[in-house]
Target: ABM domain-containing protein
Amino acid sequence: MDAVFARLQTVKSLPPTDDPDVHRRALTDILRRHAGYSGAYFMVSGPTAMRALVTLWATEEDARAASERTRAAAGETAPPVTIDEDTVYEVVDDEPGASADAAPAVAGLATFDGPFSDAARATIDRVHRRDIIPAARAVPGTVRLMVLWDRLSRSMRALLLATERPVLDAARVAIDATDPGAGEDPALVSPPDRMDTWEVAGADVPVTGASARP
Model:
């Protein structure tokens, strides 16, 4: 797991004539030819049909250039989609879960809007590494946990990939049981502003991390 940057893109839906599986396989084939590519997770939100793509990259330059490179490679075959969100993050923590070799089926995405001061960022990093990450990754069925930092908006996201929805619930219970933030300045410790659950429609990752499921 050597990705240093992640790019999160969301679209409200694909064109109705598109077969999502065909589109995903074609996009995966293109992504694998990009410089710095380190993997991808294709996600969908059941209630809204919104789709999300998390791609992993060796450098920030590769992450930011990915869409232009993909359009150049796909040409006229690229489907007309409207991007709802497009953010490049630094991957500040990337840890395997208790079931790291399993195929992820769901993902929990915690959003911390910020903006965080340097002191708040240091505190949250400390709480994540001391309490939250060890508790979450010890839960059976967790596959991978990544903490993402957006230096432009000074916001954070945490992505927990797991084998099924009950695992996400169990991870939240395990995290709450640690009393995260105990002993820290309450003004510097922030709970997530939003928690979203996604289905993982496919994954393209090294077999040493979590099994690929393109």
About this structure: The radius of gyration is 17 Å. The mean pLDDT is 87. Helices lie at 20-31, 60-74, 118-137, 165-177. The longest helix spans residues 118-137.
